[in-house]
Amino acid sequence: MTAGSIVVSGRDPSSARGDVIGVFEVVDLQLRVVAAKPLVNGGRTRIGSLDAGGYFTRATFLTNRRLSVPVEVPAGGGEPVAVVLEDSTAAAGLGTPSGDGWVAGWIFDRAARSWTPAGAGSVRRRSGTTIVMTADAPSANVLLQWAVGPQPAMFTVVRADAPVRVVSDASLAVLDLASGPARALFTFLHAGDLPAAGALAMEALSQSTGPDPAAAVAVGYYLLRRGDDRLGSWAAELTRLQPGSFDAHLLYGLALMRDKTRWPGSRGQRLTATRLGLPMFSHGLRLLDDALRLLLHGTTDEELTAARLHYVPYLRACLNRPLTTFWGGRPSEPALMPARTPEPVQARPLRLEGLTPTLPAAPTRKSTGKTKPLSKMTLVPEKHRRITFGPYSVPLTPATRTSATLALPAELAEALDTPLRGAAERTGQELMVIIGNVASGADDVDIEASVWLENAGQPVVMERRGSAMLAALPYSGSVLPAVLHLRGSYLIRSATTVPRPEPATVVTASGSPQAAALAREAERLVEVGLGWEDAQARLTEIAQEWPPAAPGEAATDRALWRRFVAAREEFQRRHRPAVVIEAKPRTRPRGGSSADGGPATFATVRGAELHLRDLLTEVEFRGPTWHVVSTAASAYCVATVVAWLRAGHVPRPCHLDRPALARLEGRWYPSHARRVAEEVAKSAIAYFRDRRLAWGLWRVEAGTTLVTELLDGCVLALPPALRSAAARSQYQPTRREEAWPAVEADGTDPISRSAAVLRGAGYTRAEVAEVLGLAGAAAVTRAVARHRRQKERSRSDGGAADV
Amino acid sequence: MTAIVVDDGPGARVHAFVVGVGNYPYCDDPPRTGTASRILGDLGSVTSPPPSAAAVAGWLAGMPRGDGDIPVGTVEVLISSPTVASVQRDDGEWVPVSPATFANFRDAFSRWLDRCDSDPGNIALFYFCGHGWHRDGQLLLLEDLGKQRRRLLESCVELSEIRTVMQHCRARTQLYFVDACRQVPPELLDLRSGVAPLVDSCGPVPLPLAPLDAPVYFSAARGFEAHADQDAVTPFTAALLRTLDGLGANREGSRWAVTTEYLGPHLREVIAWENPDVDRNSCLSVEGEQCGPSLIRTLDGPPLVPFRLTCDPDHALAAADVSIHQLPADQDPPVAFPAGGQGEIAAGVYHLELAFPDGAEFRKASLFDEVRPPNKAWHAAVERA
């Protein structure tokens, strides 16, 4: 009998075309589920291989509505039977607040372990109904704070670069992901509807291109919830692809708790997660708390205790929404109840009409005359009013066994306008706490503060001595505590009367408010450490948005325009690349030397790589062709990474934490270096195949070379490999061999050293130039010569032996 | 001590621990001042937990079991009510039960834990109905709440502690049902006392964790209150029993089975079906981990599914002669259609026909549709003649 098929289409007038609006099942007349798939608005999903007979297509919409439609598959196959499942009850914008408000972005400062304001240009409108927040670490979770109309300020944790939109029900408007699969998965998981979530997750897992980053996180939560064996590998991959993601590390930590061999790493993964802010999925908070309680049961682990205490306020305040959402004016103070709060310094105006947000450039705050830098406008206290701060949980970073530095909150340092420094020293039965630089000298800061340890007595008032504050806490522990608590108040007497020096080109707001706001925004884009692409894009937008000069305001407008141009030039001066990479390495395929050994049909490197990519796609990244390419690529990666290790320097942006950096700069035996390099190469090749080639992300047309792809993979894989190497604390060689000296003793600059090492390893000058980002073969020659001179100088000064 | 022994034979069993707290004497007479006054003053005795817990215990004691199902072993029951509560066993005998004080709870919990720990195939079932708070975890408030007015939390049980201790238990299927409010009184955050431990420390939880199917079903989302009617079984508990009874079933091969996979979504549907005004998003919260699906019970045949028929226009239903046939057509005689357009019908595929007398306002209409748990809503658009 010929099999028939059904084509199912979803329809929801309130959703965008292509959105996932639910799931559907096909059940036979015995009510057995034959297939379960996502239901896409306007999409067409074909269910094939159906025997002739009656079926039902049953939809479960995100709105909780269910719908069942009978369908008859005719005998003899033929055209597929079309079914439309429509959610006619979905109402767009029900209860959505409309009007003016503001939106602000916050990014998590890992060093200070606190949320800091993001640049105003980091929050942008992406498309008709979505906004997006960008951050330097694209995989990190960020906080979007917004308030519109009568609805007070609320925070929502989203992934940087993930578009979000406003959704609402009868009670509340909240931000939700715009990604259809991620939004649907989180919604079903939040509701506890595992069968529906399963249909979405299975679809995502079966796709060769893989889900988008937010959906990948959601799939991880589904696998965790189901206790699926695939969680371990999925979460490990997530941490590699999204190293800044709280959710990824949390999932991996929870997966490791169930792993028979790697479970000792679960504690570290969870602590890594707690250093990355907050989870995107609200259940992540509960899962984290459950896991921390579990690990703390029957033990006294101060670090885990401190981590848990940090998250308890968020757990209490978290609203019943899929994304982590809570009320409040400050990220560090989640509120149980909604309350009106002042807008933060980095807020951008937001206008919401229905479900469509716009981000007008004109400021919503009323100007009072001369403009002042925004950072000073909102952070200085009102005249003679004492401002309270804290309580903060201040982490201690041990420097020695008895001393540690304090990671004081960045917002406090910003408020006091001084670079605060803190330290703690264990002496006998006391812990001496010192906070320095509490006054920078320009302002008269009257500050009072108390510190205390968890479960260890009453707060101790700090004593002011000059620009420092001291306190001695009773403490009998054998190791330094992980965290101490700080709170207090301050008064800046002169700040309100003596504002910061204002820019020379200050203009009055009466001239051209919109232009003034745009000029100020451009200046702030230069000040804040925003991602280059976003800042550049915003500067272009500002130039396009510049309003025409009002009658009689031409001079003011010219002054404002000059300010904007100056800011733009300053930005471009700062971000101009130091060198121009124009070298093309000879390692790439050339005409007549393609991977399959076939005849050359291309004359350029780009043509060769296009051909190689098509060839690999054709063979689906396997078989003899893939073997040849992967072997060559692996050898290239191993040689490169060995050179990096030998040089003690990675000549590309690479997020190395302290253990990884220490290991990189340590002493290497060739066998160990090769072992690490082989690990890195293996991961890099897998990354290239599974996440770049398979997803169609190797964009040769855009100038991305094979070398770049491989080096990116190596850079991603190097930090965990170094950490693993550091954990293997025995650095004894596997055979009799000489160690390369540690790089600290070298005394040469890393670029020159890397150039010399790579040349010594047999790389051509052009290849070295590409790897190191130098401006050409001549630059490599100069770098090697410089290295030689430095070595000679080092020897004559009694330095270390040659590398 | 009240443990109803249903089947104490060897092998895996369902061991249940059912707690209902309706009597809160110290909340009915709170102190006049202080934090305890503000916290306890908002609470008081309630009437719905005793009948709710008794219904659950009674259902468990007489739960029908299919072939291959794990039999019910014991049901540990604590109920606090103004008078001594009792539970009816399967043989019709009424058994008086102990009040849900903290001391009784602690003892009963230890016994339940020991029983559950006896076999890895056991199913541990925990049910609580009474007042609750949600601080950083769910607090279950027992009868002697407020007895120690300076240490209010000492008479509370933290659900997280139960779940953590149960990680040590060999039973790999654990079901938790909590029918209690989940709000956070602001004053609660000022309290410095902690909950008293249920057991001595049993040491760190051994890693790696073994797979555990342990969903937690709350009758309210975090920050919301649970609903209850005076002197009646709560809507959540009533829906829970109906779901366990068959509305949580799904077709698993050739049989109908209630598993942990469909329990959550079907329970939400049953609550919403029977309480149309309830907020579907806050009437149920499913947490915990699910490494299932675990089989709770199988049914002898298709479950009875509640259905509702509406027409457009409304008054067409009154004029219609409704007949309903299960398919295949020769399988069963026509099902008698109840007056009012709603009733219960066995899960299956049906052909439903609305006929009108000659010369009537409407034309004949028919529907062909499936009926599956947890419910079925039919809507027939009838054309005018």
UniProtKB/TrEMBL annotation, chain A:
Which top-rank group of organisms is this from?
A: Bacteria
Protein name in UniProt: Uncharacterized protein
Organism listed in the record = Paractinoplanes deccanensis
Lineage of producing organism: Bacteria, Bacillati, Actinomycetota, Actinomycetes, Micromonosporales
UniProtKB/TrEMBL annotation, chain B:
InterPro entries reported for this sequence: Caspase-like_dom_sf (IPR029030), Pept_C14_caspase (IPR011600)
- Using the record's annotation, list all stretches that form the Peptidase C14 caspase domain: 100-245
Q: Which Gene3D superfamilies match?
A: 3.40.50.1460
Q: Please give the name of this protein.
A: Peptidase C14 caspase domain-containing protein
Organism name? Paractinoplanes deccanensis
